[in-house]
Specification:
- The complex is a heterodimer.
- By secondary structure, chain A is an alpha/beta fold.
- Chain A is 41% helix and 19% strand.
- Chain A has 8 helices and 10 strands.
- By secondary structure, chain B is an alpha/beta fold.
- Chain B folds into 2 domains: 187 residues, Cytidine Deaminase, domain 2 (3-Layer(aba) Sandwich), CATH 3.40.140; 85 residues.
- In chain B, helix 9 packs antiparallel against helix 11.
- The chains are: A alpha/beta, B alpha/beta.
- Chain B: It comes from Pelodiscus sinensis.
- Chain B: Its main location: cytoplasm.
- Chain B: Belongs to the eIF-3 subunit H family.
Chain lengths: 335, 348
C-alpha cells in the first residue's frame, strides 16, 4: 500500500512546534521501500504500522472492508472538470464537496458541488458558509445524500489539502479525498481517491497520511446509455453530435455488433490457420454464441414473425388513422 | 454582461442580457434555431430522474446557460425538489434564488434559459406545461423546455427533445382568449402548437479527455437493450394511453357538438320570435294600436357559452405526439424483426 505524500515540502516532522496537527505537512517518504527519510528516523518506521490497518475508531460503518472501494458516478467527473474549466483567474485548482450514500460495504458518490476557495503560498481560505448553504439546498432535492468528502483538481496532495481535509473531517466521518488530475501529467487524467490516516510518532507532532482507495465507476442503465452517446463527441472533429432518429439507432447498434462479430471471425480464422494458439475457454464462449440463435422450425418461426409484423403494421395503421382523424377534426372546427 | 436583477417570480428573470446577446429576430421567426447542450447537463438530468423520479411523478429542474446568435447553449442545470405536502414553508422562489446566487460564486452561468421535465411514455402536452412554458417564454424569449423520456432512454437511446411554443400560440396565450372564434382567427392547429428545436451535444476538450479515461476504466456495457425484441409491454402501455386520450377527445367533440346544436336551436327560436313579433305588430297596426316595443333579444335568449377550445387543442397535440412515438417505435421493431428473420434463415 503506497503512502502518498505531498512531496514539495521537505519540512521535518519532528519539529516540536506546537503547531496544529493538520498543519504539519505529512512527513511520509514517497514510497515505503525507497527513500531515506527527509530528516530524522521516525517516518519509515511509522509506515508499516500506519498503512495497512483500516483507520480504527468511528470510521464509516465498520472498517472499510474488502478492497476499500469508492464507487463513482460519471456525472461527478463531468462536474469536476466543468468547474475546473470555470475557475477564477489565477486559481491553480478548484475544490468542492462530494455527496453520496454509504453502504455497508462501500461508498457511493453521486453528487458534488464546487466551493470557492483561495489558495496562496502560505495560507488557504475555504468559504465554509457557502459549503454549508449549498449542502442544505442539495438536501432539499435528495435528502438521502450526505457529505462524504471532498475533491480537488491537480495531481498532487499539498499541505493545504491536509488543512482542508481537517475541515471536512468535521463534517463527515472519515472523509474521502478525490483528486482529478486536470494538468494531465503523463498524458493521462488520473483519478484517485484517498482516505486519511494519522501517523507519526506518538507524543510528538502527528502527521497525516493519505492511503489510496480503489475507484470503480458505476452507472445506472440510463446513465450508461447517456455516457455512450456523449462519448461519441470524442470522435467528431468539431466535438458536436446530434441525436439520431429511430432507425438510425438500430442501424448503429447492429453496426456495433457487426464489428464485434468481425473481430471474433478474425480470431477464428487466425486459430484455424495456426497463427494464434487455440484457447479452449474462448472456444466454449464461441459455442455458446452460436447456440444463442434458437433452433425453431421454419414454419413456426414464419408464423411468429408474421404475427408480430402484422401487429406492428396494424398499430402503425391505427396511429396514422388517428392522426388523420384529428387533423380532419381541426379542419371541421375551423370551418 | 449587464448585471442581472433579482427576479421576483420563478420565471421572470429580466431578459436584458438576452436581448443584448442577439439581434432582433424577424417577427414571424422563432428566436432559437438550435439548442446546444453540454454533456454534463445530460448526465445530470439522467441522474436526477434516476434517483428521485420513480413512478409516475415528473421531475423538474432549471436550465442555465446563455444565448449565442440563434443558438441556445445550455451549460448547467439544477434540479427542483418535488412538491411535498408536509413542506408548507418551502419557498420555491427562494430556493431558486439561493441556488443561482451560489452558482454565480463559482462562475457557473446563472442565466435562466429554460427548464426540463421528465415524462411518462410521452404524455407531456398538458395545461400545466403550456402555462409554465408560456410564462418562461414571455419573460425570456429564447427559453425552451427539455423533455426527457426515461423509459425510451432505458430502451437503448437517449430521448431528449427541446420544445418551444410557436409565436402564434404565444399570441393566443397572451390574449387568454380560448374561444373558438379567437382560435379560428389565429389559425392555430394542433401541429403548430409546439415546435421542436434540434439538439446537438457538445463537449469541451478536457471533458473528452475525461471520457476517454472513463472508457478505459469501465467495463464494456453488456446490455444491448436497443436490439431486444421484447416490445409488447411498451407497445401495450402506449396504446392504452392513446386510447384514453382518444376517449377524452371524443367526449370533447360531443360537448362541442351539443354547443353547436344549442346555438343553432337558439338561432331558430330567435328567428321565430322575431317573426311572431312582426306579425303581432302588423296586426296591431291594422287595428290602430301602438306597436309593441322591440325587446332586447339578448336578454330573452342568452347565448350558450362556447366551450374553451384550448383543452381540445392540447388533447389533439398529445394524441399527435403519442402517434408519432408509436410509429417510431414500430419502425424500429420492424427493422429488428427483419434482422431476426435474416439470422434465422441463415442458421437453417
Amino acid at each position: 500500500m503506497a503512502a502518498v505524500s505531498p512531496s514539495p515540502a521537505p519540512a521535518p516532522a519532528q519539529d516540536p512546534d506546537p503547531v496544529a496537527v493538520a498543519a504539519a505537512p505529512a512527513p511520509a517518504a514517497p514510497s515505503p521501500a525507497a527513500a531515506p527519510p527527509s530528516a530524522g528516523s521516525a517516518p519509515p518506521a511509522a509506515l508499516p504500522t500506519a498503512a495497512p490497518g483500516p483507520p480504527g475508531p468511528a470510521a464509516l460503518p465498520g472498517p472499510f472492508p474488502g478492497g476499500r472501494v469508492v464507487r463513482l458516478h460519471p456525472v461527478i467527473l463531468a462536474s469536476i472538470v466543468d468547474s475546473f474549466e470555470r475557475r477564477n483567474e489565477g486559481a491553480a485548482r478548484v475544490i468542492g464537496t462530494l455527496l453520496g450514500t454509504v453502504d455497508k460495504h462501500s461508498v457511493e458518490v453521486t453528487n458534488c458541488f464546487s466551493v470557492p476557495h483561495n489558495e496562496s503560498e502560505d495560507e488557504v481560505a475555504v468559504d465554509m458558509e457557502f459549503a454549508k448553504n449549498m449542502y442544505e439546498l442539495h438536501k432539499k432535492v435528495s435528502p438521502t445524500e450526505i457529505i462524504l468528502g471532498w475533491y480537488a483538481t491537480g495531481h498532487d496532495i499539498t499541505e493545504h489539502s491536509v488543512l482542508i481535509h481537517e475541515y471536512y473531517s468535521r463534517e463527515a466521518h472519515n472523509p474521502i479525498h478525490l483528486t482529478v488530475d486536470t494538468s494531465l501529467q503523463n498524458g493521462r487524467m488520473s483519478i484517485k481517491a484517498y482516505l486519511s490516516a494519522p501517523m507519526g510518532v506518538p507524543g510528538k507532532t502527528m502527521g497525516v497520511m493519505f492511503t489510496p482507495l480503489t475507484v470503480k465507476y458505476v452507472y445506472y442503465d440510463t446513465e450508461r446509455i447517456g455516457v455512450d452517446l456523449i462519448m461519441k463527441t470524442c470522435l467528431s472533429p468539431s466535438r458536436v453530435i446530434g441525436l439520431s432518429s429511430d432507425l438510425q439507432q438500430v442501424g448503429a447498434a447492429s453496426a456495433r455488433i457487426q464489428d464485434t462479430l468481425s473481430t471474433v471471425l478474425q480470431y477464428a480464422e487466425d486459430v484455424l490457420s495456426g497463427k494464434v494458439a487455440a484457447d479452449n475457454t474462448v472456444g466454449r464462449f464461441l459455442m455458446d454464441l452460436i447456440n444463442q440463435v434458437p433452433k425453431i422450425s421454419p414454419e413456426d418461426f414464419e408464423t411468429m414473425l408474421n404475427s408480430n409484423i402484422n401487429d406492428l403494421l396494424m398499430v402503425t395503421y391505427l396511429a396514422n388513422l388517428t392522426q388523420s382523424q384529428i387533423a380532419l377534426n381541426e379542419k371541421l372546427l375551423s370551418l | 454582461m449587464a448585471s442581472r436583477k433579482e427576479p421576483p417570480g420563478p420565471a421572470s428573470t429580466v431578459s436584458s442580457v438576452a436581448t443584448k446577446a442577439r439581434g432582433k429576430a424577424a417577427p414571424g421567426d422563432s428566436a432559437v434555431k438550435q439548442v446546444q447542450i453540454d454533456g454534463l447537463v445530460v448526465l445530470k438530468i439522467i441522474k436526477h430522474y434516476q434517483e428521485e423520479g420513480q413512478g409516475n411523478e415528473v421531475v423538474q429542474g432549471v436550465l442555465l446557460g446563455l444565448v449565442v446568435d440563434d443558438r441556445l447553449e445550455i451549460t448547467n442545470c439544477f434540479p427542483f425538489p418535488q412538491h411535498t405536502e408536509d413542506d408548507a414553508d418551502f419557498d420555491e422562489v427562494q430556493y431558486q434564488m439561493e441556488m443561482m446566487r451560489s452558482l454565480r460564486h463559482v462562475n457557473i452561468d446563472h442565466l435562466h434559459v429554460g427548464w426540463y421535465q421528465s415524462t411518462y411514455y410521452g404524455s407531456f402536452v398538458t395545461r400545466a406545461l403550456l402555462d409554465s412554458q408560456f410564462s418562461y417564454q414571455h419573460a425570456i424569449e429564447e427559453s425552451v423546455v427539455l423533455i426527457y423520456d426515461p423509459i425510451k432512454t432505458a430502451q437503448g437511446s437517449l430521448s431528449l427533445k427541446a420544445y418551444r411554443l410557436t409565436p402564434k400560440l404565444m399570441e393566443v396565450c397572451k390574449e387568454k382568449d380560448f374561444s373558438p372564434e379567437a382560435l379560428k382567427k389565429a389559425n392555430v392547429a394542433f401541429e403548430h402548437m409546439f415546435e421542436e428545436v434540434p439538439i446537438i451535444i457538445k463537449n469541451s476538450y478536457l471533458i473528452n479527455v475525461m471520457l476517454w479515461e472513463l472508457e478505459k476504466k469501465s467495463t464494456v456495457a453488456d446490455k444491448h437493450e436497443l436490439l431486444s425484441l421484447a416490445s409488447s409491454n411498451h407497445l401495450g402501455k402506449s396504446l392504452q394511453l392513446l386510447m384514453d386520450r382518444v376517449d377524452e377527445m371524443s367526449q370533447d367533440i360531443v360537448k362541442y357538438n351539443t354547443y353547436l346544436r344549442n346555438t343553432s336551436k337558439q338561432q331558430q327560436q330567435k328567428h321565430q320570435y322575431q317573426q311572431r313579433r312582426q306579425q303581432e305588430n302588423l296586426q296591431r297596426q291594422s287595428r290602430g294600436e301602438p306597436p309593441l316595443p322591440e325587446e332586447d333579444m339578448s336578454k330573452l335568449f342568452k347565448p350558450p357559452q362556447p366551450p374553451a377550445r384550448m383543452d381540445s387543442l392540447l388533447i389533439a397535440g398529445q394524441i399527435n405526439t403519442y402517434c408519432q412515438n408509436i410509429k417510431e417505435f414500430t419502425a424500429q421493431n420492424l427493422g429488428k424483426l427483419f434482422m431476426a428473420q435474416a439470422l434465422q434463415e441463415y442458421s437453417n
